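Database export, one record per block. Field names are fixed; values are copied verbatim from the stored entry.
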Amino acid sequence: MILSNDVLQVILDGFNLEDSLDQAFAFAVSFPQALQLYGIHEHADSLALQTTQVGGTDPYRLRNLDVSGYELNSPMALYGAVPVLYGPGPNGTAGIFLHNAAEQWVEITNDENPQAYIMVESGLLDLFILLGPTPTEVVRQYVSLTGTAHLPQLWALGYHQSRWNYDSQDDVKDVVANFTTYNFPLDVIWLDIEYTDGKKYFTWDSNMFSDPVEMQQNISATNKRLVTIIDPHIKVETGYSVYDGALEKDLFVKNADGSNFEGTIL
């Protein structure tokens, strides 16, 4: 039990907390002062977390996934996974942050004593208790651990047009021109991976994007900007300079046996 100014804010109950990095573990956390639980982003769901116990939804899943088509009002995993929970209430707000990057499942109960049951695939119970006492202070305590975002450029706050994928530079220029024609505000247009030569980042498809400099000049002439997406996955191909350079400098993520991790092509 954890109190703040003599008010009970957080109750923890742990299970299977063994001293092993490859051992799954679970624990429960209750927020006696809370009316509703929030957090554990990112899901296409309401800001207030739904009850997932009997009669509710499936548990919330935390795992970074590239989901091309996702369900609304669902606890399914999406791009982001942020294991932070907030429990605001009239007598104080508390929160927890689990510093663990493993896959997690979270059961939520919203009743007279809102609580979460957190199941973790592996790693350590590296848990931070955030005692607020206000919602603003809880968030400040959280970002004091993780760091805050830099102030973005003004244009980055505007409207961004992005899709997978534009077929050619002529297609891109046509889309930008139509935004102007129909007087629809546009600050940035994004290109997904198909602009590259065979899905190799830092390259251009010489057939479909034969003059990227001219394309960018065409876009910037109307005070718009171009962003080319560069995801953190490098194509495994000998002779590709980015792959060869990273391999030589031993920069790739490793498997448990020390070999280079290679993702599955979907």
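Remark 1: The longest helix spans residues 169-181.
Remark 2: The longest strand covers residues 7-15.
End of record.
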